[in-house]
Design goal:
By secondary structure, this protein is an alpha/beta fold. Helix content is 38%, strand content 20%. The protein has a single domain, classed as 3-Layer(aba) Sandwich (Rossmann fold). Strands 2-1-13-12-14-15 form a six-stranded mixed β-sheet, with helices on both faces. The chain has a five-stranded parallel β-sheet with strand order 4-3-5-6-7, sandwiched between helices. A two-stranded antiparallel ribbon has the order 8-11.
Length: 276
């Protein structure tokens, strides 16, 4: 029985990640650009729990939906797990959507909070003005947005429990008529997806996973990142055009990117394509 099978009915993905973090300590979990600090697993757990407390202090209630419109894997992981640790439901906003489409998704799911980061913050704020969102939280400097760092310092919050049938992720996908519609995933759904990756992906703690910016509706991107982190791998965020260079510098072994990008991947990289 794999770790996913053992825990599927007992804990959320976020609870499992936080529970595994202490034993991994300083082993690198997330690596961003040159100006972004690398986070060990213990750092990742501490930030997620502190940010969850900050989100709860700002009014996030269990099962509230929070938009996630960020440009890289580091921000995505921190945002999604902090929201889920506070009992909320992340709703990934796909890259390339227009401001009216972003606003429509946020209004449809009833989001009152949105997490973002430059260079997407301007579009995020414009979309927030057209929806029910009242708090925009940014990982970088953005006028009229709350800094992500302001969430920290309110104590810590243990990851919220959930039933298997509760929503864990609320992506939006484009229907045949071109309209965006919700495609919710429950905690059971996510456990099933991760169980499949346990059997097929073979990512381990010695792997360095190069992750392109968020792509597609968020379903496969989220589960691939979660699988890598649950396996103890190091996730390195890189711009699409910088993946090859980052793979050389970071000694990458795995790549997560949109299908249109993976065709040029080097032979030594195991590639997992995300539908764009």
């Amino acid at each position: 029985m794999t770790s996913t099978e053992a825990a599927a009915g007992e804990a959320t993905v976020t609870q499992r990640l936080l529970a595994a973090a202490p034993s991994r300590g300083g082993h690198r979990a997330l690596v961003g650009g040159p100006a972004v600090p690398a986070y060990g697993y213990a750092d990742l757990a501490a930030i997620v729990q502190a940010a969850a407390a900050g989100l709860a202090w700002r009014g996030l209630q269990p099962r509230d939906v929070v938009g996630v419109y960020v440009p890289d894997a580091v921000c995505y992981v921190l945002a999604a797990h902090a929201i889920r640790a506070a009992g909320g439901v992340p709703s990934p906003v796909a890259a390339g959507l227009s401001v009216p489409e972003i606003a429509g998704q946020l209004a449809d799911c009833g989001a009152r909070m949105l997490l973002t980061a430059p260079p997407l913050a301007a579009a995020a704020l414009a979309a927030a003005d057209r929806s029910w969102v009242r708090q925009v939280i940014s990982f970088g400097e953005a006028p009229d947005a709350i800094q992500f760092g302001a969430l920290l310092g309110m104590g810590t919050l243990a990851a919220a429990p959930a039933r298997a049938s509760d929503p864990a992720l609320l992506p939006y996908a484009r229907k045949p008529d071109g309209i965006l519609g919700p495609v919710p995933l429950s905690h059971r759904d996510m456990a099933d997806l991760l169980r499949g990756l346990d059997a097929d992906a073979e990512i381990g703690e010695n792997d360095v996973v190069l992750a392109a910016p968020p792509a597609g509706d968020g379903r496969s991107y989220t589960t691939l990142l979660d699988h890598a982190l649950l396996s103890g791998a190091t996730v390195v965020a890189a711009e699409t055009e910088e993946l090859a260079a980052a793979a050389d510098i970071q000694h990458g072994t795995v790549m997560i990117a949109a299908g249109s990008v993976t065709a040029g991947a080097g032979q030594r990289l195991r590639v997992f394509a995300v539908a764009s």
